[in-house]
Amino acid sequence: MSAAALPSWNDGVARAAILDFVARVTQEGGVDFVPPAQRIATFDNDGTLWCEQPQQVQFYFARQRLEALVEKDPGLKTRQPFQAYLEHDMAAIKDLGKKGLFEVAVAVHAGMTEDAFANYARGWLAKTKHPKLGRLFKELVYRPQLELLEYLRTNGFKTFIVSGGGIDLIRAFAEEVYGIPPEQVIGSSVRLHFEMQDGRGVLMKEAELNSFDDREVKPANIGLHIGRRPIFAFGNSDGDLAMLRYVRTGEGPRLALLLHHDDAAREFAYDREFRFSPLAEALDKADEYGITLVSMQRDWKRVFDD
Amino acid sequence: MSAAALPSWNDGVARAAILDFVARVTQEGGVDFVPPAQRIATFDNDGTLWCEQPQQVQFYFARQRLEALVEKDPGLKTRQPFQAYLEHDMAAIKDLGKKGLFEVAVAVHAGMTEDAFANYARGWLAKTKHPKLGRLFKELVYRPQLELLEYLRTNGFKTFIVSGGGIDLIRAFAEEVYGIPPEQVIGSSVRLHFEMQDGRGVLMKEAELNSFDDREVKPANIGLHIGRRPIFAFGNSDGDLAMLRYVRTGEGPRLALLLHHDDAAREFAYDREFRFSPLAEALDKADEYGITLVSMQRDWKRVFDD
After folding, report:
1. Counted domains in chain B
2. Within 13 Å, how many C-alpha atoms sit on residue B264's CB side?
3. Which CATH number covers residue A269?
4. pLDDT tens figures, A248-262
5. ipTM
6. Which residues form a coiled coil (chains A, B) (predicted)?
7. Are residues B199 and A249, on separate chains, in Cβ contact within 8 Å?
8. Which residues of B touch A (CB under 8 A)?
């Protein structure tokens, strides 16, 4: 089985670590056996499961919606943080940070019902292409990771996403693309409130942040949503480090992986300087923290589906 | 199959409604067919799945912990809301309400790690008996509901708890007793923060409320945790009404059920006057809202396991 598993992964340290880990935790009677109910695996999304360059998809999603809103309310053009996004002022956007990006997304989607947002997001994802790679965003998911998700599930794991991106945007495609149902998606979120509208109960999105699911908040949200420590985690930036260390420092067998984007030819090469989610501390301390580095260039036979 | 299903339920309107609903949503090619991924069922816990009289279990749990803390810090004896609980001052406790009860639980468990809390709760549930019925709290679950949970899962449903009780206390027994894993438990919660302690990542419980999962907050938390509208819900008080209406007013086949505790002989009889979770509006408007009433006395052949 191992020979056929993960066909888009090259033989090497990372693939071997995955195969060895899964073999150990599924070996009944073995010293490292983990019952299926405890086989929880958590994945970051942006840059771990799909492409986040040159901008995170959330950026394009919010900006397109923002442009539509400006036609109705031209005053937004001179109001921050909207102005920075409308004018593509990258210095200002960098200053606003990943949280600022999410706050724009919050503002432009406030007042929609959850159902309306989901329809809007699905429609957007069904037609919107990456500006440089020319393919639908939802096709720019990493083939080796799709295989890994499936491989883990085949071995009794329950797979979750734990992302700094908006929880609803991810839920709009995660089931179709990753095989991960909405209830296994954790992400940044706005407050919701329930109300009756014309006899129908609806959830309204408010303009207020509920949770910005980054860094130390990721393990805290794992506690809230999952309620037990995962045994496997995969990330690609310092924003994932707390989650990786939370998972890695539990008792028993553990595997924490970190994707290094070092493949300018097939995707992008970036780490310390990426504006929203730099990879620096996690790269420098991976050994010390027991985190296994995955090199896109070296460890992946291919990146996207052809 | 139907003849053997739900053996602890008497033939009647409620049992027939459940069997009919499940038959319709699982009938492939039928007009009411619902794909398995969308078969989400949510249950309240206190008074719906287990006994909440004469006090909710949360009450006994927090009070025992409070008494232990008083030995270390006698000053708590004269500080509210602790004093009311220590002196069994029922008038003051009623004024504090269900949220006050939860806030006492918050205060007495702050500063514990999630792991330590889970161990403490499991130990407490393994030994603590109901003061009147003389059995372990975790044995005072309703046999007809255990059958219903299992029946739904057998028919492809995913079963969730959505409770005003503390999420961690429920997670400490829900898998063993209800077959519901921690990630399918939603409840009231405190804020958690992640930190490293002696090289180990832990989640610490703070003294601050994150969510009091009652009334309109229940559907909002369903939106956050599950991300799609359930098609089936079961409650027993006005605290569940928003959830029941949210579920009932979605498109397609829907079933919302409400347990009426009208059985003083086998359990307890109460509705409008129950101090923490009265059943009044939901009882008066069940017909108007399309909610099916379940009478404990009439619809259940037995209540607890012998």
Report:
1. 1
2. 3
3. 3.40.50.1000
4. 999 999 999 999 999
5. 0.95
6. none
7. yes
8. 37, 40, 114, 158, 160, 167-168, 171, 175, 181-185, 189, 191-196, 199-201, 203, 210, 216-220, 223-228, 242, 245-246, 248-249
